[in-house]
């Protein structure tokens, strides 16, 4: 019997504001007893639930079971900034544009495929505009360097015929109510989601067709007599094929070890406040990828602002409350610099989320053992990349051939990282240098 023992389980750091203000419509159910299925999916995030939806379309008569270690939307999938971006977004580079025109065009095509899949799910399951809003996003510049980065980005978009619009300081102030920004670059294809609401809505919609067991971590995964068995605390699931959508935790299943970088990013959400100058909602990415991501959202209790700054490379699955508090204080300074009139509005939630990068910016994807498929490593854009990987894993596992799958498969495996502690020292040094270079963009 080929068996993997999972010794390290997912954990969370801080309380995600997205999850805290979200409501679930379907009660949680945990695995209790031994279950047989045609398909087992491990992880109920963007990858796992997208794979489940695709399988339900391709094999409507099959029994599909999803195991989630924690609670739906409380993990990484409910902790991101909520941007589903179509145009290239590469955290490991200093700019947003990809290396070549052909690579850029392919990536845009793949991202839009994933967004269309998500949009169809949002429509089918009745998600509101607050949950899934195709509003586009703005790359905001607060420095001369940021303005130059936006100009270069705009030129790369023009080269491939992508729609975009430059905004001046006056227009940025009209949108945000802040005089902090010198300009912006608007692209219309991005979708803004409330990530916890989206994941919970997706899970609720799928629960009519499949079984989702929460609070049911996989402790052992083994194959015997042509079938895989995942053992949890109070039961097991056995089936011929397994799709793993656990992002960087794929290493804990014995695969891609020493090839994935685990990066924490940090966010805070304000308490609700009364209407202020500017539009009701907007979404800003920094012109420098290492700067501050800022969103204004509308809720039943009033407006809120979500700010995301800072990155750290860690080999752990959690970060300390002390670090969260320290970075939240830095985020307070960033927010006050942009919106001094909100200085009396406190942060209500601060949290960290764990994303996964590979050194050569490729996913951890494919059939990694017989009947075992990986849809992991989203390279900093989990909403889109993990959605795409989940769909592609379902296609691969069912033998559903397509041009989209052929192109997705046509990339190398993640390359090996330097050994520790050299990787930790090197990656954190590069991150800090890039954050310092971002300056007022952060």
Produce a short descriptive summary.
The chain is 31% helix and 27% strand. With 442 residues, the protein is α+β, with helices and mostly antiparallel strands.
Could you explain the architecture of this structure?
- The protein has 442 residues and is of the alpha+beta class.
- Helix content is 31%, strand content 27%.
- Strand 18 (282-286) and strand 19 form a beta hairpin.
- Helix 2 (46-58) packs parallel to helix 8 and helix 3 (101-124) crosses helix 8 (382-398).
List the helices and strands and how they pair.
Blueprint: E1 2-5, E2 13-14, H1 17-20, E3 33-36, E4 39-42, H2 46-58, E5 64-67, E6 83-84, H3 101-124, E7 132-133, E8 137-141, H4 144-159, E9 165-168, H5 169-176, E10 183-187, E11 191-193, H6 195-206, E12 211-213, E13 220-224, E14 227-231, E15 235-239, E16 241-244, E17 260-270, E18 282-286, E19 293-299, E20 302-313, H7 321-338, E21 347-358, E22 364-369, E23 372-376, H8 382-398, H9 403-409, H10 422-438
Parallel strand pairs: 3-15, 4-5, 4-16, 5-12, 8-18, 16-23
Antiparallel strand pairs: 1-13, 2-21, 6-11, 7-11, 8-10, 9-10, 13-14, 14-15, 17-20, 17-21, 18-19, 19-20, 22-23
Helix pairs in contact: 2-6, 2-8, 3-8
